[in-house]
Amino acid sequence: MTMLVDQARYDRQLRLWQLDGQLLIENANICVINLNALSCELIKNLILPGVNNITIIDELKGNFSSIDISNNFFLTNEDLNQPKRKNYTSIINNLKELNSNNTKLNINVIREKFDEQFIEKNQGKNNFWLKFDLVVVTNNYNYKSFKKLLNEVIDYNLPVLEINSVGFFGYYKIYLRENCIIETNLNTIFDSRINEPFEQLKEYTETFQVLKDIDNIDSVDGIEDIIESLKDIPYVVLLIKFYGDYLKIKNNKIENSLIERKKFKKFVRESIDRIYLKIFENNGNDYLEFENFNECINKSNQALISSEVSEDIQEIIDSIPSEIANRTNNNNNNNNNNNGDDDMTIKENVINENNINNKDYNELFWKLVLTLKSFVKNNIRKNDGKRLLPLSGILPDMESNSVNYIKLKGIYYDKFKSDKEEFINEFKKLFPSDYDSSNKIDINNMIEKFCKNCNYLVVQRNGKNSLSTKINEQILKTCLGESVNSKGINFGNYYIALIIFFEYLSHKMDRDIGGDGAQCRRTLKLEEIVRQIKWEEYDYAGNEEIINILKELVRSENNEIHNISSLMGGIGSQEVIKLITKQYTPIDNTMIFDGLTSSIYKWKF
């Protein structure tokens, strides 16, 4: 896919998700169900970063009321009492003005009711929903149609976001069977290999003769040259030297514990103090302090960070789907006779990273994980059995002169290239039909990203209760178990109250409250639902608090408060960007916001 990006306009966000992420955003096709203040805020925050294709599904029934005008900043007084089907264009035009220079922006409105009939009508249209990269359902209280939508798309791993804004409360939940993330942007810790230096790094460390001669200084002769050499040594080299010395003292056994890190930091500080003392004694009693030495002390914890496969990554390796492993066996057995026709569909989908859907992207992800498993197996160290991942090759800025830094950076990058080449060769052996394509640039680019980030992979899976819209035993145990925040608020009560409220609205569908005593009647009905739950089975006595929250929800009369909708729209758009770019880690998988206490809590169901 070829697409021009306005790099000046999107400069700041390009620094967050790079050009690849921006291309995915501009090429995304988002479906938003229902047009309201919440969805307008969501769309606003998608238009600004450059989303070009948005489809809105809404019946647009009736006229804009005074409540609509007060709740939605994208409406004006001129829209009051005007038919929604006619004047919705004012909202669309106001939204488009937010990124008026974007001539590619297309907001399509389907003026139909989102219900079971709509879903059934589009079932035969060659996967109507699959033309979208993501579906966002806002303020929808017809759970029958919502469940039907989920059943329609869940097997295709199409992300569906449910976002509600009612009164002072916000609710967010993502429905996605599996989300595999390579670029989590969690690589804030430098993969230095200080405690596992590879051969080139060892050899480079040995070239700093001054570290060997420091104890032999016995006169002022040449002390200036020694000082210049010492203050230009990268802290990585210093830590490799000090770690080797410490390892000898500890008989080659060092644990990565808080106590051990403190001991090693003390050892580094004492070693540096001895160097300072030696210089002081031979420099006419002039006291000096080197920035790289201070950096070495501050970064000493890096030396004890294991370079082995972590428990989290091992868990991902152990959960490779059987169909990926089975296809590998078939490829190995039939490589000479198979012309690749069986994998043609997969191959065409996965090669272009900017066009693939979640299902195909995840399949490629698991193939890379299987390749990683093979890479790790091939790189078990014979002397101690440690299993190492590919080196990321990223070297952060540090105190040093240009010559030493550039040399060190080249060493790390060369090791990265070597590991990446080995990884590519292993991938070719395991999945020859996926690699032997006319377009190898994207697959190589994908492998490069994977090798750089394989220390920080994340796989999110929805649990069995993630598709449930009703209160059940597991949900009660989860949200009532550990849901008390630092303010002493039990957010489990809020979650249960919201689910009961939404489920009630789904069955009653009495969104337009009218008549004397309507709020009282609704409150009494909701209280009855709460009291029917057998709370004693969960050793819980907070049902009265749940009833109080329900009273507040009823008092809101299902109306939005724009600042709450604005916040939820911002959160929702942020999660959409994460899912579209396949970068950063989305909320997993349920969150509520309480505007009364300005608090957020989340659960994994």
UniProtKB/TrEMBL annotation:
Residues 324-343 are annotated as: Disordered. GO terms for cellular component: cytoplasm. One of its GO terms (biological process) is protein neddylation. One of its GO terms (molecular function) is NEDD8 activating enzyme activity. Residues 10-599 form the THIF-type NAD/FAD binding fold domain. Gene3D superfamilies: NAD(P)-binding Rossmann-like Domain (3.40.50.720), Ubiquitin-activating enzyme E1, inactive adenylation domain, subdomain 2 (3.40.50.12550). This is THIF-type NAD/FAD binding fold domain-containing protein. The lineage of its organism: Eukaryota, Fungi, Dikarya, Ascomycota, Saccharomycotina. Transmembrane segments: none annotated. It comes from Ascoidea rubescens DSM 1968. Residues 329-339 have a biased composition (Low complexity). InterPro entries: ThiF/MoeB/HesA, ThiF_NAD_FAD-bd, Ubiquitin-activating_enz. Coiled coil: none annotated. Signal peptide: none annotated.
